[in-house]
Task: structure prediction
Amino acid sequence: MTQADSTPSASPEPTQSDEGQARVSELAAQLAASRPAFAAYNAREDLHIHDPNALLLFVAELRLGIDDVDAFAANALTDHSNDKKCDMVALTADRSKIIVAQGYEALTEKPAGPANKASDMNTAVSWLLTGPLDAVPEKLRSAAAEVRSALEDGQVSEFEIWFVHNLPSSTNVENELKQAAKSASSAIAQYFPDATVDVRHLEIGRDQIDKDYEQSNAPILVSEERTFEIPGGFEIGGVGWKAYSTATKLEDLRSLWTSHGVQLMSPNVRDYLGVVKKSGNINYGIKETAKSEPKNFAIYNNGITVLTNGYRVNDDEGSIVATGIGIVNGGQTTGAVGEMPAADVEELADARVMARFVTCTDPTVLDSIVRFNNTQNKVEATDFRSGDAVQTRLRQEFAAIPDADYRGGRRGGATDAISRSRQMLSDSSVAQSLAAFHGNPNLAYNDTRMIWDSDGTYASVFRETLTANHVVFVQSLLAAVDDTKRRLAKIPDSDRTETQRRHAQFFSTRGSNLLLVSAVSASLETIVGRPVPDSYSLRFSRKVSPASSAANWKPIVDVLLSFTAQLVTATDQGLKSREKVNSALTNFTAMVEAVRGANAEAFDLFGAKVEWDGKGDGAVSSVE
Result:
């Protein structure tokens, strides 16, 4: 058998549709000239390789805090001629939120986003939530299986329907999305009766994108001066910051919300979660406490943190005057109290909430205040791992790797999503690729958080012997796989060979990219023609950039793509069965062994670029 001639590179790149490549259109230029959000978006070349879904991914970054757009796109995007009106289906890492989205970019100015595109979300919701799975189109089937599994498991608390576009918002679109949300609520109630889910619909037009972008850059949007009545308090401070701790009236908080709404949440891009009228919902509990036990509210509630441009305390008047207000912690409390019906607030005069007013002039400290106080952007396990010996050493070693930026658990500032470096190796991508490469694609796809949360799992993935060179070796394989998937997706159905259709079908399943990484890794001894005693020592022989490393992998991925049919049985419901994965990997590696001789040239050329401990100096031998 010879190398397959049906790899994505064998077919020409498709031309963009008449609504593609908005960044070079007349409208794109106009928006970029007048709106900073769209200027930043147009400059993001890493996003535009995913056209026509680049704007949708830009919004997902801003709203979901994605740290690796390529890894996210590889499994979340469903855009296809038979995608049943759905461009993206995403499940957050903690499996608590499902996002179903449709994107649209106009080339020229129009009065509003197309309402028919919004109405398409009804179709998307129906296919995802109802009917037999085998009737769902292949491109969407894996996403539907994952969504239904998460709902059945009771993990999902939010279901959001997005329509993202670069035009003005409209009532017609709002009405269509509202109907889609009603359909989703009905379907969930009927088919998943045990699920407790808040269904929301969002039209995210250019004005809302501007707001999301502005919030990610400016921690405080409400600039007015506001006086709060207080019973006293105390102040502490440090270099470049000070904070005053006290208790403020819920009436004042409610008045603040009435005046400014979600603008108060500008330090928290993800905004207020919304109130679901169910006893288990935190926001509903806040409202019930304020209504039934207002005098005890201060000791039941965790309190709020108010970020200000400055404040002054008037002890004689029993007040604090804040200039500029942003709720950095306590958004649920503020929103829940602010949305209480007027009939329920009669007793609020006696209710208080513990409050901390903070001002800071140090940008670095300010970013940390926003990050660590934000209940919607909680301290992650990666923050704690960032200081350990392995991550510290890796960051030092990466200084010698060309065109590579690895932060090792250190999260950047709020502007990361809008000025992301193409040289960034994200924590999630590195963790996933390491886990998959070393035999655990199930963990890599289904529970990336455990890699960072569990001491034992973390130690097994980020071993003490792990080097930056090995991280590049492994992560670049995932990058090469994802690039192959993107190139396949750009070939129109009508231009695909039968082999390319099978490859595209494989890649349409959730977690398929990580499964292929694991399969290639399991075949490496066959590929290089030598035993590899310690797979953690594998590396390219020269310190090459991640981009050059991915280019090294491309010929291998193109050859082994022919054997992905052996992996299909393991891809049902997002790599849930370890037994199926192991069986599929065994079948895959057997196929690679059978064709080693026929692909000796490509394999040996790759093997000559690879080093590992104990390789020796002899010539690579072909295994017949």
Q: What stands out?
A: The first strand starts at residue 88 and ends at 91. The chain is about 45% helix and 15% strand.
